[in-house]
Amino acid sequence: MDEGFWVFGYGSLMWAPEFPVAEQVIAQADGWRRSFCLRSLCHRGTVERPGLVLGLEEWPGHVCTGLALRVEDRLWPEVSARIRAREMVTEAYRETQLPLALADGRRVEALAYVMRKDHVQYCGELAPEAQAEIIAGAAGGRGPNADYLYNTVAHLAELGIPDDGLAALAARVRALRA
User: Fold this and answer.
1) Which residues of the chain have pLDDT under 70?
2) Which of 23, 48, 58, 87 is catalytic?
3) N or C: which end of the chain has fewer CB within 10 A?
4) Which pLDDT score, from 0 to 100, does residue 177 have?
């Protein structure tokens, strides 16, 4: 049987993986949190006006819930190269294997892109108000920064994954853009 390879999606990979997904299962990564901690210089912002995108930060005591996405063995070389090209544009992430607990009881190792706190684009201590200001006004090669936030919040809600912090941030951004 084709067991495939797994990728952990905690942001846009959940709603726009851009590769064939053989299976998707809600998954948890213990000791990690999703946060708007990465200044985006190309996808959702520019060098002149950086946006913010999600990073996966190591955070003891937290659990990040997202999606485990399985890729068929035969597709893995091409898919992993495409994901790497997408996620490693500025090398702000570190590519790693994370243990995940799947909602159906399985445990898998998944490719994940985690934040490098030593990278110049890391900005993990921004207050929600500052995050909202940045996200409300930024846009990059993949479109408005606000759309990235709205899509993530909508997809998390659709999956039944609560994230009150992101929902509140989306409300702040909507108010600023109104």
Assistant:
1) 1-2
2) 87
3) N
4) 97
